[in-house]
């Protein structure tokens, strides 16, 4: 059980060079005692490439993506990128993917979003074939992945682990059957246990796969100015209130807005909630948006997370 942090593309772009900033943040994460750094994906810098670069520079860290939307991307391309990042990071890269949202798929890429779960199943089927064997032979209803030449990357070992940002029942079933785990976000500990851990474990068991990794993402900030941090959370997280998949788990968690799930307070408050997620079945806790209330609180948060990461857990 480990604790890491997630960095937003906006955070990296608030610098002279996004990749240099990622490496600098990675060094700070190592100094704080954190285990992993994860990079979000929008339409700018490529998070797979950024993660691989940070992994090469900092051999102490696991690096990953949280997450790469599969809409507008082909598994052949993503497999090549992921294997290159794995070789670059010498085996410490994890690929996080998700279906993404309707707005991005239809407005940005001009593609339909009618069957996201079917697309996810075919995408993961081809992706895992590529990562395991270096080729694929998928002729699905939506996707074709049949490269005429080998698609493996020398040095991309061990096989790239794949986590899916799955929260709905259908997506969790697919993730349990075809992926190595999940990256859920905007959920409370009780919802994690009942609506994420139980169904994905059951799906993996039925498919004869190992117990999945549950890397839960949590917005958290250690601060003395709770009111200011809460206001920032309300502003930055309002987007999720309108996304159906998030809307469901937000409501299951017993709140009305995404920002209410942000963990904001002193060290004791944040540490207690992180412990609750581990008790609910998380194998990893990845803390996001630690810079909500400025750099001083981000560093304070990272110090706490590093201390918690160093403590043994049953």
CATH classification class: Alpha Beta
Average pLDDT figure: 95
Placed side by side, the strands forming the largest sheet appear as 1-2-3-5-8-9-10-12
Describe the sheet with the most strands. Answer: 8 strands, parallel, barrel
Describe it for me?
Helix content is 47%, strand content 16%. It is of the alpha/beta class and 314 residues long. It has a single domain, classed as TIM Barrel (Alpha-Beta Barrel), CATH 3.20.20. The strands form two sheets. It has an eight-stranded parallel beta barrel with strand order 1-2-3-5-8-9-10-12, surrounded by seven helices. A two-stranded antiparallel sheet has the order 6-7. It starts with a strand and ends with a helix. The mean pLDDT is 95.
What structural keywords apply?
314 residues; alpha/beta; TIM Barrel; 8-stranded parallel beta barrel; two-stranded antiparallel sheet
Task: Compose a concise summary of this entry.
The chain is an alpha/beta fold and 314 residues long. It has helices spanning 9-13, 18-32, 47-57, 75-88, 102-108, 116-133, 169-178, 189-206, 226-237, 244-252, 267-279, 295-310, and strands spanning 2-7, 36-39, 62-65, 68-69, 93-98, 138-139, 144-145, 162-164, 181-182, 213-222, 263-265, 284-288.
Helix/strand layout:
Elements: E1 2-7, H1 9-13, H2 18-32, E2 36-39, H3 47-57, E3 62-65, E4 68-69, H4 75-88, E5 93-98, H5 102-108, H6 116-133, E6 138-139, E7 144-145, E8 162-164, H7 169-178, E9 181-182, H8 189-206, E10 213-222, H9 226-237, H10 244-252, E11 263-265, H11 267-279, E12 284-288, H12 295-310
Parallel strand pairs: 1-2, 1-12, 2-3, 3-5, 4-5, 5-8, 8-9, 9-10, 10-11, 10-12
Antiparallel strand pairs: 6-7
Helix pairs in contact: 2-3, 3-4, 4-6, 6-7, 7-8, 8-11
